[in-house]
Amino acid sequence: MGKHDDSAEAQAVHERYARRTPNDARYSLLDPAALLAAQERQRAMLRLFARVGCTDLAALRLLEVGCGGGGNLLELLRMGFVPEHLCGIELLPERFAQARRVLPSALALIEGDALQAEVPPQSQDIVLAATVFSSLLDDAFQQRLADAMWRWVKPGGAVLWYDFTFDNPRNADVRGVPLARVRSLFPHGQVQARRITLAPPIARAVCGAHPALYGVFNALPMLRTHVLAWIVKGAGAERSSLR
Question: Contact 92/158 with Cβ under 8 angstroms?
Fold first, then answer.
């Protein structure tokens, strides 16, 4: 498969996103379930950074693949990353435009297919992919994107991964990415991973009764649907299983 196939999958992503409900209220932070899931993910990422020794976030270069409207990059700025060391790539023009409106001008943004992006090899301490691969339905395209991300990471750096692991029977435009698939996409990486995020349908139901129930139900690992993984390039990280 070559460039033509990559263009076909990129076009398919355009079409799948066009079918989504614009400004879906389920993903607004005004919804308690969405807010609590976002806060949980932020806490988990900060704990991860501390555990792996990334204490000077301002010194780290991070690139996000599929940065959307810039929400994750805004979170990273609040965590302590600096605009000059952040970069985002976004395929969809309307989402790219939104990111450009809300993010500092010193933060570099690249519009278009990540596989065509001119990112220097081994230039990034961290490459982030958050709910990106679950929207890519072509296995070969997934692998080529993973390979590109891996080239961009410095030795000793890492891919930071967040995505869901189960298929959504109500949405044929996405599919879950199990941890075994993550490992196969990055066969030379040393993976540390944990399961987080209460299943969104359950979260919305229990938060409708009371937001405090999010934590109660999320205490059961079997009800968590997403994986947060740190995939290290090079020696020095132990492989750990989900918990």
Answer: no
| 241 domain-assigned | no
Query: pLDDT tens across 126-183, in order?
Result: 999 999 999 999 999 999 999 999 999 999 999 999 999 998 888 888 999 999 999 9
Residue-range definition of the domain harbouring residue 216: 3-233
At position 17, the amino acid (one-letter code) is Y
More confident residue, 20 or 145: 145
Q: What CATH number did the domain enclosing 24 receive?
A: 3.40.50.150
What gap in Å lies between CA 37 and CA 11, rounded to an integer? 30
94 occurs within a structural domain? yes
Domain annotation covers residue 28:
yes
Q: What is the mean pLDDT of residues 182-202?
A: 97
- How many Å separate Cα 143 from the centre of its chain? 16
